[in-house]
Amino acid sequence: MTAEAYHAQLRLLLPPGPAWDREFNPGLDELLQAGAERLAKEDLRAADLLAESDPYTVRELVPDWERVMDLPDPCLGDSPKFEDRQLAVRRRLVEVGGQSPAYFVELAIDQGYPQARVFEHRAPRFGRSRFGAAHFGTWFAQFMWTLDTGPRRRVGRRFGVSYFGEQFGGSPSGALECVLRRGAPAHAVEFIKYGE
Q1: Is the whole-model pTM more than 0.90?
Q2: Phi then psi for 61, rounded to 5 degrees?
């Protein structure tokens, strides 16, 4: 509610009588206006509190969410950006995990590679492999897969766009490698092919 709406509500809540009339008590309206402005500010803060309780809109309470969820993620480095910290809170709360190729593609998309794809290597098997049709490796190839990131994302620190204290020339792929290696099955051998 706005301060004007609170002021009108406070005027209606006054008891009847000449002591509360504007003509006899001109300072009363100023007192009600000050109270209405304070109530309007508290109303805005209550809306902020509701926003802070949702991990998709959290801003002020990110450190508290991180403390509860054992964050910041070591994959983000020593000094992650605030937006990355918000994303980590959301992901920690809703992420289920998985071992399917689609899960690892989703991890790459979250790290800023929208055209990522997973290629699973095929092991030679009698009846499924044809001579000369495709190249395949040894028996261990059944545990190998490659994540093709596609074109490199357009993110980087540039003069005039970055804020003071951000590192120039950092590798944007370090977090991707850490997240993939942490989430990969223990028996798998994963490779990352970076696009151009």
Answers
A1: no
A2: -100, 20
